[in-house]
Amino acid sequence: ECLKQEGPLTAEALGKGLNITSMGARQQLHAMERDGLVEHKTKQQEMGRPGYHYGLTSRGDELFPRTYPQMANSLLETVRMLDGEKGIERLFKKRTETLVAQYRQRMANKNLEEQVTELAAIRSEEGYMADWQKINKNTFRLREKNCAICQIASNYTQACHFELELFRKVLPNTEITRETHIIQGDRNCTYLIRKK
């Protein structure tokens, strides 16, 4: 919290702010640096050798409260007020088109199993904690153990509709069925993917 409020600090300054020794502060900083939460920069002092100044990385900064879901819901509600349900549909459709282009780049020139593997990797990178299972050579199951947009999807069911549409567009030679759905109270969202 001190690094967030004060900006980059030396171990000595941080120790004073936390009422601990500089050695104790340094140990904490090294652990946080190892975890990618802080980084140090060498800064020339007025006298003596350069000192290390520790500051938050973007990953460390993300540990502080954010209101992204509230902002997204507020923006969607504004779109609904301005353009009604058709505006919401257009927004999710355009987002899906953008994602289709991004996913296709990563999934190009791969067989179906490799595409499902890549789809799970992409979804995990987006926060869905996805994995997959091979049922047979033409059938797979994609499982998402987290809904990264749950607060939005619970208010705007279009999000889930267009997610399924996204999968169908990036895996066009398949039939995809949603088997379970977090928004409906299931533990996971699972999708059965069958080659046509």
Please tag this protein with its features.
single chain, 196 residues, two-stranded antiparallel sheet
Folded structure, characterized:
By secondary structure, the protein is α+β, with helices and mostly antiparallel strands. The chain has eight helices and six strands; from the N terminus they run αααββαααββααββ. Strands 3-4-6-5 form a four-stranded antiparallel beta sheet, covered by helices on one side. The protein has a two-stranded antiparallel ribbon with strand order 1-2. β3 and β4 (139-144) form a beta hairpin. The longest helix has 40 residues, at 68-107.
List the helices and strands and how they pair.
Blueprint: H1 2-6, H2 11-18, H3 22-34, E1 38-43, E2 51-56, H4 58-61, H5 68-107, H6 112-125, E3 130-136, E4 139-144, H7 150-153, H8 158-170, E5 174-180, E6 189-195
Antiparallel strand pairs: 1-2, 3-4, 4-6, 5-6
List unreliable stretches of 5+ residues: none
The secondary-structure class comes to alpha+beta
Q: State the order of secondary-structure elements, H for helix, E for strand.
A: HHHEEHHHEEHHEE
Instruction: Provide the β-strand percentage band.
Output: 15-25%
Q: Looking at the structure, what is the overall shape?
A: elongated
Number of helices: 8
